[in-house]
Amino acid sequence: MATTIRQLAQMKRDGERIPMVTAYDYTAARIADAAGIPIILVGDSLGMVVLGYDSTIPVTMDDMVRHTRMVSRGSSNALIVADLPFMAYQVDSNEAMRNAGRLMQDGGAHTVKMEGGVAIADTVRRIVDAGVPVMGHIGLTPQSVNALGGYRVQGRTRATARRLLDDAVAVQDAGAYAVVLECVPSQLAKVITERLSIPTIGIGAGPDCDGQVQVFHDMLGLFPDFLPKHARRYATLSDDIAGAFRRYAEDVRSGDFPAEAESFTMNEAVLTDLLDG
Ligand code: KIV
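^ thats the input. predicted complex w/ 3-methyl-2-oxobutanoic acid below
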């Protein structure tokens, strides 16, 4: 049985911190699941780290369904959260409901995530009422990067901090079971975490959130030249992978690969017969 939203609520009550990572395919999901990660997010960050766009804005519902399906096939224990991408829930709440349903029925997600606070609270409520658990996402909401004027910390002034508090309460009141706080000052994230009864999951929101989320490619060092301030690198896979490719290319060029152990043989008599014939 996968992690449930009731268990997450209990973890907050018990003060047990919640680790969450992103994954975008079957292999990554298998590894995260086997490592005991309780929540896997199929983030629309896949637009940047998998599809090579410079923002999450071009990501489509078809992209999200395809990658969510890969992840849900690879995981049996983690709660699978899938992002509703840009404009999949802002146009009207009927379309939002249909798209949330697609992520669950076609993608195999257990829950969906939506960016926004007060402005999307009514839509969140309708989706939750239809039986789809919703994780909120406030602070730096990357789908609004153009409206925000860049990827910048949110809630540093009295007015914007007040707005973020209102957003957090609005998504909780609308029925969200958890909320991501992205790039929010630690002190404000602590206030929000104490104010809410649902778990907060931080990314660039300091140590006092109930959980933390990291992007797969950041934490595993798949982009050697770039690490956001809020990320910690737990491996440098780009170096390991590049080194493996270089050694492989050398072995092919020198004739060292494949060796006998990596090759197949056939019966000599069959070969002789073939050549004689
Ligand atoms: O898409 C994503 O990876 C996210 C996380 C940064 C929270 O939304």
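The first helix runs from residue 5 to 14.
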